[in-house]
Amino acid sequence: MVEKTTKLSPQAQSGTHVSISARRHRGDIMSPEKRSAVMSRIRGKDTGPERAVAQALLSRGWEFETHARDLPGRPDILFRTSMVAVFIDGDFWHGWRLPVWRDKLTEAWEAKIEANRRRDARNFRKLRRSGWTVIRLWEHQVKRDLHGCIARVEELLPSQGRQRRIPRT
């Protein structure tokens, strides 16, 4: 009979290794000051992916609103006459891979992201019930295939007149 041996990492040997289940119950590894500094740099609007989509749409002559306060969820890009609302969501904050990440998050982060997901679903439902077409573009999609994302948006916009295209000068 062959006995299987497992080589332990230096952290496991020294007792400093923390399992995933234990990680869920420990506090933040950053000091409150450091966490505050990190969080203060996170943008809620006009993120890199949002700017990339907006610039691409503008370069193709589309006119649109951004962050419409009068609609649920404040769509990132809004084509009011076509009733198309575009949300460009961050993978982490809106829980794109939450089922995979769940075990790596503290309970507080998991609760925050779950609340974001519920709020997103509620806002999308309200918009759809009001006759809006809702498109969600994920951060990773925009970074990987901006032209494909723009094509998805343009498919839903009127082909005739292109919603008051901005004249090129």
Describe the structure.
- By secondary structure, this protein is α+β, with helices and mostly antiparallel strands.
- It has one domain: Endonuclease, Chain A.
- Helix content is 43%, strand content 10%.
- The chain has helices spanning 10-14, 20-23, 32-40, 48-59, 98-101, 107-129, 139-144, 146-155; strands at 65-66, 77-79, 84-89, 133-138.
- A four-stranded mixed beta sheet has the order 1-2-3-4, with helices on both faces.
- A hairpin with a 4-residue loop joins β2 (77-79) and β3.
- α4 (48-59) packs across α8 (146-155).
- The longest helix is centred in the last third of the chain and has 23 residues, at 107-129.
- It starts with 9 loop residues before the first helix and ends in a 14-residue tail after the last helix.
- The model is unreliable at 1-26 (pLDDT under 50).
